From TrEMBL:
Upper lineage: Bacteria, Pseudomonadati, Bacteroidota, Cytophagia, Cytophagales
Domain Photolyase/cryptochrome alpha/beta as annotated: residue spans: 4-138
Keywords: Chromophore, FAD, Flavoprotein
The protein's name in its UniProt record: Cryptochrome DASH
InterPro entries: Cry_DASH, Crypto/Photolyase_FAD-like_sf, Crypto/Photolyase_N_sf, Cryptochr/Photolyase_FAD-bd, Cryptochrome/DNA_photolyase_1, DNA_photolyase_N, Rossmann-like_a/b/a_fold
Species of provenance: Algoriphagus taiwanensis
Length: 478
């Protein structure tokens, strides 16, 4: 034992299994005090006037904290919940609780790293050592075949090198008990309500299939159901571009984003599935997607704040439009382009959108409307239940053409995409009820219908449903 009492600060690692920070604290400290700090800066308003953490993700976060607290209670301990700036709240707690070390998981982007640095400084001034651990990726940073600063810019190069030269580390097992510092006379703290965080409760949305609850237990429940009960992993590659329902893709993203489950745990479960059920392209493809996630994280670390700048890592000249009313039409799902609007309405109503949808709506905003890609990324940051700073800003840079995509133009032809992914218009019909009467593929181009047909369908385009913001010809561009 190296320490008497270790504060374990939980961040985006809200789990007890495969948690190196927690495992090392248990190993090196006689007693531990787990703590989560709700930082008011996470609930600020962004430059574009939206909450930094919207109601869907905030609710998922509160559920995840509750679940973690219950896990600690079952292990004979408690999760303290504090509110305030972590660098101040933790230093204060360390002093009151006579902790002699603070452990936490490392983050990669500047806001989070500034908090780490401020905490380290405060702890140093108090003579308290801090130890931090790399947690969030499938491949550990120290196992990459290159220094992070030399992460290949092209995804395929990155993937091939890590697949050939790095190994995924084994997971840390869940602790069976903890030595919780019981004599600490500090209130364990209540989990705030959404209202106390200045947010409204999400309205129940009958059309939503995104039935997810925050926390490690539900993450494991989804893993169990997707892999073993429903046996869906073996067809993941064929279904992953779907749009409707809970099961076309894994939906692991909200849990991964808050660290309720680790990518290594998913990796080990894929390997088990391959041994016990089936090994094919689909089982590999889920790992392939987790490597994308790693890639954006290492790219974010390599390029620092450039990933948030409108010029991106390519230093492109800023020639974006900043048309507020068109941006709002995009946000509200009122651009007059049904496939775009359906996706944007799903996001607004549920906090989720498929990967196919995200690529399409992002391409539409930047390529068809020419609007500043950082506005789109900021809206996603506020609204997504699975917002992950590196995956979100990295993907947006990619689509915005200011990132590391070797292709010059990532333009998505919306009608062609609609033909491939929603040929009968079933998806659009769910989210745009005002067009529900339009049959088959015509729902993607209601403006092509003759006025007589429209009258029969009782649809008055421009009134019941807006005229498209961009000329149809541009949608038909190759
Ligand atoms: C503009 C844009 C913004 C995005 N913002 C986010 C975000 O904030 N948070 C987020 O987790 N993903 C983001 N993605 C990636 C992807 O859309 C989601 O990870 C995926 O839709 C989540 O659903 P799933 O868990 O069912 O994915 P699955 O298809 O089941 O994939 C499994 C996991 O692989 C990872 N993954 C899959 N695709 C990607 C990708 N393109 N980039 C990085 N990781 C990936 C995710 O962790 C995902 O949970 C974004 C994509 C785009 C185009």
């Amino acid at each position: 034992m190296k320490y008497n009492r270790v504060l374990v600060w939980f961040r985006n690692d809200l789990r007890v299994s495969d948690n190196e920070t927690l495992s090392k604290a248990i190993q090196l400290g006689k007693e531990i005090i787990p703590v989560y700090v709700l930082d008011p800066r996470q609930f600020d308003t962004m430059e574009i006037g939206l909450p930094k953490t919207g109601k869907f993700r905030a609710q998922f976060l509160l559920e995840s904290i509750k679940d973690l607290r219950e896990s600690f209670q079952e292990l004979g301990g408690e999760l303290l919940i504090l509110q305030g700036k972590p660098e101040e709240a933790l230093a204060d707690l360390a002093s009151k609780a006579t902790a002699d070390a603070i452990f936490f998981s490392k983050e990669v982007t500047s806001e989070e790293r500034k908090v780490e640095a401020a905490l380290e400084k405060a702890a140093f001034a108090m003579g308290i050592p801090t130890e931090s651990f790399w947690q969030s990726t499938l491949y550990h940073k120290d196992d990459l075949p290159f220094p992070v600063g030399q992460t290949p810019e092209v995804f395929t190069h990155f993937r091939k090198e890590v697949e050939k030269l790095s190994k995924v580390r084994r997971i840390y097992p869940s602790p069976s008990r903890i030595n919780y510092a019981k004599d600490v006379d500090i209130s364990s703290g209540d989990i705030p309500t959404l209202k106390e965080l200045g947010l409204e409760e999400p309205k129940p949305e009958s059309k939503s299939w995104m039935k997810v609850k925050g926390g490690e237990r539900s993450a494991f429940g989804r893993l169990q159901s997707y892999f073993w009960e429903k046996d869906l992993l073996k067809s993941y590659k064929e279904t992953r571009n779907g749009l409707i329902g809970m099961d076309y893709s894994s939906k692991f993203s909200p849990w991964l984003a808050l660290g309720c489950i680790s990518p290594r745990t998913i990796f080990e479960e894929v390997k088990k599935y391959e041994r016990q059920r089936k090994k094919n392209n689909s089982t590999y493809w889920l790992i392939f997607e987790l490597i994308w996630r790693d890639y954006f994280r290492f790219i974010a670390q390599k390029h620092g704040d450039k990933i948030f700048h409108v010029e991106g890592i390519k230093n492109q000249v800023d020639s974006w439009r900043r048309d507020r009313s068109q941006f709002e039409a995009w946000v509200e799902g009122k651009t007059g382009v049904p496939f775009i609007d359906a996706n944007m309405r799903e996001l607004k109503a549920t906090g989720f959108m498929s990967n196919r949808g995200r690529q399409l709506v992002a391409s539409f905003l930047v390529n068809d409307l020419g609007i500043d890609w950082t506005w789109g990324a900021s809206y996603f940051e506020s609204q997504l239940i699975d917002y992950d700073v590196c995956s979100n800003w990295g993907n947006w840079m990619y689509v915005g053409g200011v990132g590391n995509d070797p292709r010059e133009n990532r333009y998505f032809n919306i009608l062609r995409q609609a033909k491939n992914y929603d040929p009968n218009g079933d998806y659009v019909r769910i989210w745009i009820p005002e067009l529900a009467a339009v049959p088959g593929f015509s729902i993607h181009q209601p403006w092509e219908l003759y006025s007589k047909q429209l009258r029969e369908l009782k649809i008055q385009l421009g009134h019941t449903y807006p005229q498209p913001l961009v000329r149809i010809s541009s949608l038909e561009r190759a």
